[in-house]
Task: inverse folding
């Protein structure tokens, strides 16, 4: 089966304006000719060499702590921002080469849809629920006939359990859960091949989260599209995803089938995440506690493991050499000096 999405060595680096000697290329060029001083303009490595695939109909979970680069990564995949380097192939086409400013005119714009982190902020306050759901149908599918538009909007509202009477309401007249449904309806209305969900429930109350997650499971079964599901909540990822990738400071540190990641995690960071799940049955029921703060994503040392200093298993070697990618099984790897093949 050929992959729907193929991401290869994808990077997003931010040159930090005003924090180095200068971001002006001319001044940097003159300095490089006139002095022997190195250019120390700091660079933040938000996403740093990420590679993975998503197959048709597959759901992939992306987990990792705040600031590890999840939203930056999905922003590039949905072509809302440009990469620094690497490639993003969707259905065989290198969409990473299309500048984000003109991507709206590409046919793939319809096929990749994203549901953002906060439903309260991502709805236009001047649009009713109907307008919000109808907007991509008009813009991307070219549907202008009022009757057809109404039928399509009502059908998708039913799919996400949004009562018809709420279609005439504005966002401030909706609850958090209702707003989340409008957001999901907007994304699935155009029948995308890939639905990206960036922490779709994190801004909702716990009880509402459970209802929305049930809806997402239902949609996954009904619609058969591919999912990229970003979440802090590992239980949710286990419920929804076939495979999981774990990110730490801009890089993937472990990737594998969801069940294997949850029962036999191979990377110390994944072990810590899983052991923190209440009633977790892995790692001998021992809670692996992390101490200290993550390292800075600015100019990370290429010759050290980024988890060193926080890792309970870290040794001197980890501070002197970047860890290798170790195949645990044929479709499961971990990036650690001490990971072992099964
Ligand atoms: N425009 C920007 N300029 C400079 N740095 C940025 C920019 N956008 C994001 N970053 C940095 O990139 C890193 C990754 O941020 P990102 O929002 O992708 O994290 P995240 O994993 O989505 O976190 P969260 O779970 O909190 O949503 C962070 O260190 C962040 O400060
Ligand atoms: S390479 Fe070393 S510091 Fe990094 S995760 Fe493995 S044991 Fe921990
Ligand atoms: Mg984010």
Result:
């Amino acid at each position: 089966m050929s992959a729907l999405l193929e991401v290869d060595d994808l990077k997003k680096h931010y040159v930090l304006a005003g924090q180095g000697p200068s971001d002006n290329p001319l001044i940097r060029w003159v300095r490089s000719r006139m002095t022997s001083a190195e250019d120390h303009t700091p660079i933040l490595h938000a996403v740093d060499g990420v590679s993975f695939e998503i197959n048709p109909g597959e759901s992939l979970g992306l987990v990792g702590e705040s600031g590890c680069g999840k939203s930056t990564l999905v922003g590039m995949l949905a072509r809302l921002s440009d990469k620094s380097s690497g490639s993003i192939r969707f259905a065989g086409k290198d969409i990473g080469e299309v500048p984000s400013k003109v991507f709206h005119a590409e046919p793939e714009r319809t096929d990749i849809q994203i549901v953002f982190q906060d439903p309260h902020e991502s709805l236009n306050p001047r649009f009713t629920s109907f307008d919000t759901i109808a907007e991509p149908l008009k813009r991307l599918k070219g549907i202008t006939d009022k009757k057809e538009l109404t039928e399509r909007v009502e059908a998708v509202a039913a799919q996400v359990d949004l009562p018809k009477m709420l279609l005439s309401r504005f966002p401030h007249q909706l609850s958090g859960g209702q707003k989340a449904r409008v957001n999901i309806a907007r994304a699935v209305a155009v029948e995308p091949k890939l639905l990206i969900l960036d922490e779709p429930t994190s801004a909702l109350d716990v009880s509402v989260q459970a209802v929305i997650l049930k809806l997402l499971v239902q949609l996954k079964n009904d619609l058969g599209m591919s999912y990229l599901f970003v979440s802090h909540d590992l239980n949710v990822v286990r419920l929804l995803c076939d495979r999981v990738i774990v990110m730490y400071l801009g890089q993937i540190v472990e990737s594998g089938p969801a069940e294997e990641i949850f029962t036999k995690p191979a990377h110390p960071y994944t072990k810590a995440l899983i052991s923190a799940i209440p009633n977790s049955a892995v790692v001998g029921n021992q809670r692996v506690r992390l101490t200290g703060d993550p390292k800075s994503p600015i100019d990370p040392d290429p010759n050290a493991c980024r988890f060193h200093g926080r890792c309970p298993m870290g040794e001197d070697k980890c501070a002197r050499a970047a860890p290798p990618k170790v195949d645990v099984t044929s479709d499961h790897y971990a990036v650690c000096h001490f990971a072992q093949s099964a």
User: Anything to note?
Assistant: The CA atoms of residues 146 and 191 lie 19 Å apart.
